[in-house]
Task: structure prediction
Amino acid sequence: MNIETFKYDNRIVRAFAIATVIWGIVGMLVGLLAAVELFYPGANLNFQFITFGRIRPLHTNAVIFAFVGNGMFMGIYYSLQRLCKARMFSDFLSWFNFWGWQSIIVAAAITLPMGFTTSKEYAELEWPIKIAIAIVWVAFAVNLFGTIAKRREKHMYVAIWFYISTAITITVLHVTNSMTMPAGWFKSYSMYAGVQDALVQWWYGHNAVAFFLTTPYLGLMYYFLPKAANRPIFSYRLSIIHFWALVFLYIWAGPHHLLYSALPDWAQSLGMVFSLMLIAPSWGGMLNGLLTLRGAWDKVRQDPVLKFMVAAVTAYGMATIEGPLMSIKTVNSLSHYTDWTIAHAHGGALGWNGFLTFSVLYYVFPRLYKTSLWSTKLANYHFWLGLLGIIFYIVPIYVAGITEGLMWKQFNKDGFLQYPNFLESIIQVVPMFRLRSIGGTLYLIGVFMMAYNLYRTAKAGQFEPDTEAQAPALEKVEAPHGKLAFHRLLEGKPLFFTALAVVAILVGGMVEIIPIFLIKENVPTIANVKPYTPLQVLGRDIYIREGCLGCHSQMIRPFRSETERYGEYSKAGEYVYDHPFLWGSERKGPDLAREGGRYPAAWHFNHLDDPRSTSPGSIMPRYSWLLTQKLDRESLPARLAALRRVGVPYPDGFENGPAQKDLDAEAAKIVADLKQGAVTCEPDREIVALIAYLQRLGTDIRSAPVAAQ
Amino acid sequence: MEEKIICSMNGVGIYGVISICIFVAFFTGMLLWAGTKKKGYLDRMGSLPLDSGEIKSNDQLNPE
Result:
């Protein structure tokens, strides 16, 4: 037997580990600021770059792609080498992956506060950064497959399957959802419109949770949990079922984000049914993790690594039963748009991703520095503080979410809305927002404690850049004819395995997405619905820039409580020119789908300048810079041309002259309207465009027949 | 009420039926197939992470 000696690369693992801690702190600090702004809107100091609408995507992107992303790379680079008994395929690609990823994070941290956003949740970054993401991700995938190809261990352990599914599915999701038409370096319009855009976005959004926050972390669980407990996984058979059922089912469940929306009913039902089916593999995986500790629970008491892991796997179980329950249409009718969704997301994020990341950090750091953890006691304090933080975060927010949902739906005995003013529901839950920020603070203090503990561990030990290892060279063994079991063949051949995994993830996506594009009846056209005017296009882009959809939906569901409050329910045909769709997923303010004409222009002016002047108790931030900043009308031709390219029927040449005249005329009209409300404003200010857009919303079908083909 | 919102669609019902059939077939097949795995193979696969091949193993570091 030919024994080979080789070295594992620890430098790259350390780099990702440090980045994980740093970006974790940054992302959570931004989250805390966002949480404070929700009960103290002045916390942005009237500074547009840190206003809630802009830092919400910064927070989500930072914790998902910077904190969890780096954590994922840290765990994969550590475990993959050891499972393959091989150094990473290419050190160059490893470092390209590292520095490329950090550059993307920095680019996001600069562009998102500046308002450069596509508005699509968890895919907000503009097109040049999206291209960079694709390149860096492909480099990671090549490194992953290259390492697998040169492995010395014949079999691919289940963790590697999860890594493979992550690499390929994120590629498919990112490319499909990033199809945009540039209108300058920092502006683009989604190729898809309205319902189709919504379906593609939530197919992406849901599966980003699945294949960025879940599958790679399950791979980490399957590697680090047995390592920390020093015993094999409870049932390898169950892990096989867990993997295939999960990757096959997850992809179908995206439409559960769009229940009761204008998405066709059959797609909603598929999303709901497959979400419920997901409980089976998810709980199989959770039980597999927890049962691995059978007979070793004494270790959990002593070892903070295992403590964090047990809590993380339990949080995974809680989140994966709650998610399917929220996908049941009746439950969703109450939970959707409320803070319940935020509580659900944070149970998974803080518990599953956060705690598993911490456990891997506590596992990896002492091993990289060839020493013991500096303080187990401090790590234990971190655990309990983190757990308290999670409870103080999610319990108030569950209460807030259910309160909002019930208040929005409550009718009095005469059949009128009990709380006709939306603001009443928000004022009611503001104390919960305060409590939530305390929970977040506790959690963040725990992270600082961990950072200090890891720093002291590093100081106490000596870093080992390469770990020497030995393994026999992989010999090519010819299979006896017909004797090789199918699965052994499968996991012995990465390419074949990958091809099957691709088929498994593509089936669900294709069955749902293709009909929405091909069957015309899915989006009935409405004759009265017309493209936005030039001024409204610019106003809509300001709406996107300011992240208004972070708090305001534009999708009225077909419930009496909603039609009473907002007007006629939304139809698919109303959104055919919406590139991108702006349905939103959360209501901290009322739905705006029928906002046009509800209030005079001057009300909007005063409200945007100081929301509390028109709505006492409002938690909306001031947008006073809109009153002074000049409208960027020079970009109008490029924007209109891009919109035409994605299918909005502006006549040829419209953007070269007629559009500017059209814009001037409409701006003059808005200024005249403002004057009636005793407000004077220059016609070239941003607020004029935004008011034009808001006054247009939902007015197309006000006098129209519902569906004129 | 929902019938009014979502206009009738010809032929899409078949997608639901096909999807459920695909799922049932996939899940049943996978359960049966996972059931055929031999114990020796499963034990060996399960113990893969425990041997990292490191010459001076760091695996048993005392957390204290």
About this structure: The radius of gyration of chain B is 25 Å. Chain B touches chain A through 51 residues (CB under 8 Å). Chain B is about 55% helix and 0% strand.
